[in-house]
Design brief:
Shape: elongated
Distance between the termini: 117 Å
Order of helices and strands: HHEHEEHEEEEEEHEEHEEHEEEEEEE
Radius of gyration: 39 Å
Number of helices: 7
Largest sheet: 8 strands, mixed
Helix content: 25-40%
Number of domains: 2
């Protein structure tokens, strides 16, 4: 009887285990099925998100492609320039014939010629545009003008300098003189950085051209070293028009000399320059004129580079004791005094061999043309050159477009 009961218990235990196994398998199957459903739902959700994103991007692309692109003012100026270059390539007879002349073409004409779209398709603002073309040496400079009223207008460099430097009648600053505006004093913001060198603004002419002098000196050499019949040796002849110094300046312009490993002028710099008259008349040490009345009695026209005159240097000083070249005080309050020896364009009228230079102390001295000093070239920027950035300080010089 007892053996029978034991067997029965074992059979009951086996049945229970089988039932538990079946329940576990059924539960596992349900979990797998639920997991499979969840994965399918997740994949379906991700697919919907992906397709939705692609669809949104496609809609945005279609909208943007149908909408006009908004250009920056600088980009539109470049479009004007390229369009004008294309136009004049087709019509070369319309280009200016001489350096002193310029031609203009407006955006309406360029659009009509198929060289660009109307300005309204580039910008939301009501704008007018034109391109001025000027001949420089054997090439042409294209200068775009874009005027969008208060929103944007290109600023000529000379106008920026005048706006930053109100005219003064005493102290350091910009003085009005005979239709020109001339910097005087010691601490003034008249620094200009071109591509390869830093310059100082000397003056703005009555034609709004900007005269610059190199901030430092280059190429130590004689003013002239030719044989002088009067002196009976190679003391030089103080005639600027046939001098070694003039030849050196011409070489610097054509094939820029290097100073501390840097070129003085780039092709871009040259495109901003115009030819100008250089005053090369002689004067005496005792002369007290500071307005170039003596120096400009003799003028060399159409020069690409020149030198400052004695008057230019004397007038830059605001020391009242700066009377003439013999005045030691001319170095005072004078931004042109840069602690270097450098030549001036002016010769001493006392003989045929003496010329004026500025010493390291800032004195103007008369010495033999055959002696050595450095060159501080002078150039003139076109009135149509545009301002880009800067305040004119030594730390943040003006930069041009």
């Amino acid at each position: 009887m007892s053996n029978f009961k034991v067997v029965k218990k074992k059979e009951e235990t086996t049945t229970e285990r089988e039932e538990e196994t079946e329940e576990e398998e059924e539960s596992s199957s349900k979990k797998k099925e639920e997991s499979s459903i969840s994965r399918k739902k997740m994949i379906r959700f991700m697919l919907i998100v992906f397709l939705g994103t692609v669809g949104l991007l496609l809609i945005l692309f279609i909208i943007s492609s149908l909408s006009p692109r908004h250009y920056t003012y600088t980009e539109v100026e470049e479009i004007l320039k390229v369009a004008a270059q294309s136009y004049f390539k087709d019509h070369p007879d319309n280009l200016p014939k001489s350096e002193q002349s310029a031609v203009e073409i407006d955006s309406t004409r360029l659009a009509a010629e198929g060289k660009m779209k109307n300005l309204s398709e580039y910008l939301d603002d009501a704008c007018t545009g034109k391109v001025q073309v000027q001949k420089v040496d054997s090439s042409y400079v294209y200068i775009p003008y874009l005027n969008c009223g208060e929103a944007y207008s290109a600023v000529e460099f000379y106008n920026k300098v005048l706006a930053d430097n109100p005219v003064v009648s005493k102290g350091y600053g910009l003085y009005s003189s005979g239709g020109s505006y001339i910097f005087r004093g010691e601490k003034i913001n008249n620094y200009v950085e071109l591509d390869n060198a830093v310059w100082r603004i000397v003056k703005i002419t009555s034609s709004h051209n900007v005269v610059l002098v190199l901030n430092g000196g280059i190429t130590s050499q004689s003013w002239d070293d030719r044989y002088n019949e009067e002196k009976s040796y190679n003391s030089g002849i103080n005639q600027y028009s046939a001098s070694r110094i003039k030849e050196a300046l011409e070489k610097i312009y054509v094939n820029p000399s290097e100073y501390n490993g840097e070129l003085i002028l780039s092709d871009s710099d040259k495109a901003k320059m115009i030819s100008f008259p250089v005053c090369v008349g002689k004067r005496l040490v005792t002369s007290e004129s500071k307005n170039n009345s003596e120096e400009c009695k003799e003028v060399l026209q159409n020069q690409r580079m020149g030198l400052l005159t004695v008057s230019d240097y004397l007038y830059a000083s605001i020391d009242p004791n700066c009377k003439n070249t013999a005045s030691k005080s001319c170095e005072n309050y004078n931004y042109l005094a840069n602690r270097a020896n450098w030549w001036l364009a002016t010769a001493d009228a006392k003989d045929t061999t003496s010329v004026f230079s500025v010493s390291q102390l800032g004195d103007v001295e008369s010495k033999s043309a055959a002696s050595f000093s450095t060159i501080r070239p002078v150039i003139t920027l076109n009135s149509r050159v545009f301002y880009q950035s800067g305040t004119g300080s030594e730390e943040n010089p003006y930069k041009l477009r």
